[in-house]
Amino acid sequence: MASTSQPLRGKRACKKIFWAVFPHGCFILSLVIYAFLGALMFSHIEGNRKVNLSEEYRKFLQNLWYISRNLSDNMTENEEIFKEKIHALLNTAERDWFVNPKDIWTFFGSLFFCCTVFTTVGYGNTYPVTRIGKYLCMLYALFGIPLMFLVLTDMGDILATVLSKSYNEFRKLQSKILASKLCSGSTCNKGDELKSRAQSKVVINEPLTIMEVLKSQPGIKRKPIKYRNAEIFEMLIARENEHTEPARNKSIERWSSCPELTRGKTMSRVIKNFDKIGKQLEKLDVPIPLMVLVIFVYISCAAAILPNWETRLDFQEAFYFCFITLTTIGFGDTQLEHPKFFLFFSLYIIIGMEIVFIAFKLGQDRLIGLYKKVISFCGEKKMPSKKVYPK
After folding, report:
1. pTM of the entire structure?
2. How confident is the model at residue 382 (pLDDT cuts 50, 70, 90)?
3. Could you give the angle at the alpha carbon of 157 between the alpha carbons of 155 and 161, nearest 5°?
């Protein structure tokens, strides 16, 4: 029986883990599918469009021909004038006149464009030109941006849990070290502490009447009647819950004997997991300097790796590019030569945006707390002082 029960427990544990991870995997998978469908759509629409030579393009060629024709044999005399005219003329040129759309709107190029759309980065070096492409881009962003924020919130809960637990463990370790330093050389009276804890906690091991509860708790007699009644009621509820726990365990065992009931209970747990999204971010309380240090280290690691395939970028330029990307500013002043390699950094971008999002959320909470303190301080200053009249 023991050998057969162990595989069943293993299967149940695997099922629990699967249904616990299911909501997170569902969000990420839906975002990946949405990005791939958008890449196929934009590569077909924008990549197969016909390039029509406009009147501006003909004027550009005509002006370039005039400048080259009026050049004299002596380049030293007209070199500065030639540079100024060529620079002004090239500023009027458009990239679509010289680039084939199929070279820009490949599958990886379109996928990179879709990632910049729903992450709200928007570098500006790749954009739709056709009218239908612009309309579809607006519709694509309308559904893609909320989906991206949902993934950020969901993954932010995981990161918030990891950060909060790590920070709490660090604080516990720090307090233990300080306690060991304080207790070194002197014996700590742990017995008195345990006695005080035992007296402060109310433990009811067997059914008691209300009169017995009153007799066993002398501290209740000194309190007002309404507080005594509330504490008596809470103790009775605790006693009732303690005696009904074995019955609940039996009911849980009956769930496993009926597959239909087990499936329904599992689905209800999955639905509750969806309802818990974003709750851990609200509970997170980590110092802002620690979050700034995490962001700095996170961006520095990418800035050290990125120049390996983007040879035009050094560490400082790569750091600037990663910061502009993760904060979704996206000026577009730094362009990548190999955007398909940067697509492999998609997980890095999502996790980095979550870290920045958590830092912004902490900063927002601190600002709200600061505003509350300032307003309460100003309100106390403006409150008229109460006059005490003699009787």
Report:
1. 0.65
2. low
3. 120
